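Record format v2
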Amino acid sequence: MNNDNTLSKPYLLGADDLTPQDVKLIFDKAQFFMDNFKRGEKFSDLKGITVALAFFEPSTRTKLSFELAAKRLSADSISFASSSSSLTKGESLIDTLRTIEAMNVQMYVVRHVNSGVPLFLQTNTNGVILNAGDGKHEHPTQALLDAFTLYKHFGKLQGLKVCIAGDILHSRVARSNITLLRTMGADVALCSPGTLLPRHLNIWDLPILENIDAAVEWADVLLVLRLQRERMESGLLPSIREFSKFYGVSFEQFSRKPELVLMHPGPVNYGVELDYRVSSYPNCLIQTQVTHGVFIRMALLSLLSKFV
Amino acid sequence: MNNDNTLSKPYLLGADDLTPQDVKLIFDKAQFFMDNFKRGEKFSDLKGITVALAFFEPSTRTKLSFELAAKRLSADSISFASSSSSLTKGESLIDTLRTIEAMNVQMYVVRHVNSGVPLFLQTNTNGVILNAGDGKHEHPTQALLDAFTLYKHFGKLQGLKVCIAGDILHSRVARSNITLLRTMGADVALCSPGTLLPRHLNIWDLPILENIDAAVEWADVLLVLRLQRERMESGLLPSIREFSKFYGVSFEQFSRKPELVLMHPGPVNYGVELDYRVSSYPNCLIQTQVTHGVFIRMALLSLLSKFV
Amino acid sequence: MNNDNTLSKPYLLGADDLTPQDVKLIFDKAQFFMDNFKRGEKFSDLKGITVALAFFEPSTRTKLSFELAAKRLSADSISFASSSSSLTKGESLIDTLRTIEAMNVQMYVVRHVNSGVPLFLQTNTNGVILNAGDGKHEHPTQALLDAFTLYKHFGKLQGLKVCIAGDILHSRVARSNITLLRTMGADVALCSPGTLLPRHLNIWDLPILENIDAAVEWADVLLVLRLQRERMESGLLPSIREFSKFYGVSFEQFSRKPELVLMHPGPVNYGVELDYRVSSYPNCLIQTQVTHGVFIRMALLSLLSKFV
């Protein structure tokens, strides 16, 4: 199926499921919801549809964002999560989803600590699967809301210079963003200590910038990733102070290039990858990303509901 | 109160609360909801009523099933659970329910690890109580959805040969099913290792079938129970392998009698009480049971709401 | 802003935010909701507004009360709580609230183990903040529902003799009630062992009654507080038996003065601060307080929603 009003695939597992036409469709729909969101009114796109929020990995902002998106489209939503060991086995997970499916639950927003779980569920059940983050693999709705934020700021994505900075190795946000930004014709570069870059980096063929100074100079946009402290414990980083010095973004660097756009998927470790003062900088779009996130997820739920 | 459209009791604590007329009323209502369930529409039977889902014992499928049933009838629902030690004392539990009652919450779906808690609450509060499983005692909505599934498959319950297999001793599902199936005129037999049968079995006066081969030969329906692994630790079973050999249901046994109906309350331990391949067998009605479960619970909530 | 239909402040952090006019406005609104609450109907005061229930400290009754109040005003509500250590730092808490704000969530009902958190959030975010209990500081909605209960029982608050009994030292309920009752012209006295009275008691300038007998004799109303058992462990009380003897309320004491009104914020330790038989006494208004609590919270959500 592929016409002007329909996504090319009946699910969203990764950023590579999306054609430029799909992205345009999603952005238009998100913009429509944004323009028409009024206090006291709801959209009825998902009326009578039940959405399962199946978060097998703790999440606050992404879960709330999807929950609000579902509510504002008049969906019923059920939350479903488990740390039960029986659910760590794939077979049992499928049985659980098939059980919920049998209760007339049609759409599944899935987050899981293991890469590939959304794909596994999509191939083994009939529900519409929306990946809300799987392991180190993909987080496609984050990439879409990031791209939407850039699109609205710059009026285009084609030719935009975006540098992704920080812990690339463990980041599903980085993976999804690299794929989507290249689909849309942006130029992507990376900036990260060598130990936090994937080994088989050549599959991406991306320029590596040496430090944040170089990144600030080159980029239109800095997408800073969250440093996960446990990386240090595993010996991948000598010290947070050192990481912060070479790969953290300081207020001074920003002052030199005020037109530079800063994004971060959150939550931010202020003082580590980002100076706190940077957050009040006008081109720091972190809050805007969050606002757009709800509208992007409304767009996706609405467009994917056509496959229910 | 007992007329054509009203249940004979203003609560559902156990299967013995139900007359054949009650069961017919519930089945008709469930069938009505099933026939008229359309995407984009809700029933308004519980509009303005607040249902408390008071699950004091972990549950996924039963809780979701009731939650969806309540939503699809336009009820408000609140979830209420506690592992707090203060709530293990009966007196405190009643105080808690009276407090929630004082907030204009009218119906209570109660699951508790202790047998008799729903009865205790029903006699000490004014709320309409619906037992969602109490200890080893009763799980009447499971029995109703099982019976409804059989009724729809065979067109009758009278004279149907149903064998309940597995851990009868600890099973509230078995207890409720035995009562309800006999109320409806079915023939019930059991198939279980001696250590997993109740000691005072003579109160039921039911035939015991020696092994699954005998059960398959005799029965129209096999209702297989979940084996709880902790039974083994407590010395009631020599090994899972041995249990599985004599009391597990294999693919070969089914192939011999394809018209045999298989049911299981879930979640299934595949490879223990049931061969995984059996699950795709046409007369394996496990998913159908789940689907019917929501409609049966909608019927019960709707019929019991008349007593609010 | 201060006219006949608007609260004087766009938030509720403590009882001292409220003028007598505010209290009258809240009572009138609560009474309106009480008179017009009908099964099958909802009020639409908060339609399209999203209320975050941010309970960083465990709560059952207050959380359910606010949740029901929000639902009955047609609000969307999201629950948000965390025991995560990252959220114990104030800075991170503000970032979390700002993130949720960016998702178009307008009102925040906040409970936190630390005194001052609601104030901290109110001064650092744009959301409408409603304090649902912070540390040992304030619990203003409890004070309002207590005052409303007394107002409806006596027809006035002016000149009413209210004795607050029990663990004053650790009680936010006591603090909020003292402030609000004095705002409304009631006479307040305290009755508590010396170790459970605040050291700088002179700031209140309140009479201290020696024991419950004296309190029963003096008061129109006894507001009994919950004794938290951990007080004993910390050496503030010699034994529960002794506390109960001198500061617990017995059935006999009530029998002597049947017109005395008894209140308690719940949950009650029956047998410690209150004889169980007292709970069925006609002027024991504990259940009434709970019922009024939902209407008071509806009134507050409705009145504060004008500042969204």
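The longest strand of chain A covers residues 128-134.
Chain A is about 40% helix and 15% strand.
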